[in-house]
Backbone:
C-alpha cells in the first residue's frame, strides 16, 4: 500500500498538480491539508475522476483536510476530539482496510502557532495536547495508527537548513519539539527517520527569499505510525520535484510504502 501526504495549499488551485502527480506516483491513499475550501465547494467530481473515493472536512479559505482512497473508507472522526467548539478543519480520521487488518489513518494539519508567545502559539500547544490524548486512546485500544500530514514541527536540527535562523520560530521552539516527542513516546514512530537518517530531507520551501532555488527547506510533513505499522514500512520518499512545477504548493508530497 502506498500512502501519501501533501499540503496542497488550495485544492482548487492545485487540482492539475494533484492529477499529474497521482498519475505518476499511483498512491492508494492520499491525505491532503490546506484544501482551503468548504465541503460543498470541494471539487469532488474531479477528484473522483482520478479514481479516488473522497472524504473531506473543510472551511472557506482556510485550513481543510481530506482523505482520498482508491478503495472505500469509513470516516471515524471529523475534527480532533476534545474541544467541540473548535471549528477549525484540521483533523480527519478514517478506517482503511488492508490485508493485515484495518488502519486508523488521519490527515493532520497542526496549527502553525506563530508568533511565538501569542494566543496562536497557545492554541498550537493545546491542539497538540488534544492530539496526544486521542493517540493515547487509539494505542490503548490496540489500533494500528497512521498520522499523516503537515505537523508544523521541525523535529531536529537536521530537519532545517539553518537551525539558528529558526530558533525562535513556533515550529522549532523547544516546547513545540517536546510536545512532538511526547506524541511519539505514546508508541509512535517517525516513519521517515526509521528508514532514512540523512540530513537535508526537506518537505517545505517558503515562497520567500528564493528558498526553493537555494534549497533552504524544512521537514515539517510527517508520517507518525504505531509500532505495529512501523515494521511494515518499506520506504518513505519526498517527491521534491513537484515543488519545482509551475505555480506549486510550498510543500512537496511525501509517500510511504507499507507491506500491509
Residues:
Amino acid at each position: 500500500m502506498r500512502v501519501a501526504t501533501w499540503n496542497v495549499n488550495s485544492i482548487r488551485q492545485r487540482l492539475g498538480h494533484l492529477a499529474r502527480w497521482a498519475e505518476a506516483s499511483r498512491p492508494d491513499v492520499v491525505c491532503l491539508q490546506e484544501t482551503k475550501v468548504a465541503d460543498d465547494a470541494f471539487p469532488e467530481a474531479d477528484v473522483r475522476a482520478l479514481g479516488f473515493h473522497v472524504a473531506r472536512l473543510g472551511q472557506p479559505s482556510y485550513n481543510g483536510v481530506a482523505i482520498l482512497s482508491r478503495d472505500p473508507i469509513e470516516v471515524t472522526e471529523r475534527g480532533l476530539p476534545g474541544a467541540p467548539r473548535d471549528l477549525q478543519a484540521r483533523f480527519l480520521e478514517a478506517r482503511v482496510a488492508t490485508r493485515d487488518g484495518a488502519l486508523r489513518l488521519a490527515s493532520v494539519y497542526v496549527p502553525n502557532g506563530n508568533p511565538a508567545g501569542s494566543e496562536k502559539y497557545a492554541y498550537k500547544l493545546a491542539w497538540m495536547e488534544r492530539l496526544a490524548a486521542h493517540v493515547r486512546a487509539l494505542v490503548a485500544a490496540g489500533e494500528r495508527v497512521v498520522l499523516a500530514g503537515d505537523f508544523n514541527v521541525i523535529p531536529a536540527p537536521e530537519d532545517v537548513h539553518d537551525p539558528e535562523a529558526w530558533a525562535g520560530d513556533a515550529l522549532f521552539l523547544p516546547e513545540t519539539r517536546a510536545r512532538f516527542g511526547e506524541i511519539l513516546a505514546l508508541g509512535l514512530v517517525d516513519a521517515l527517520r526509521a528508514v532514512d537518517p540523512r540530513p537535508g530531507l526537506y518537505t517545505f520551501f517558503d515562497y520567500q527569499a528564493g528558498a526553493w532555488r537555494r534549497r533552504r527547506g524544512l521537514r515539517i510533513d510527517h508520517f507518525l505510525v504505531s509500532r505495529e505499522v512501523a515494521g511494515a514500512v518499506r520506504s518513505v520518499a519526498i517527491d521534491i520535484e513537484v515543488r519545482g512545477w509551475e505555480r506549486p504548493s510550498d510543500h512537496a508530497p511525501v509517500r510511504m510504502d507499507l507491506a500491509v
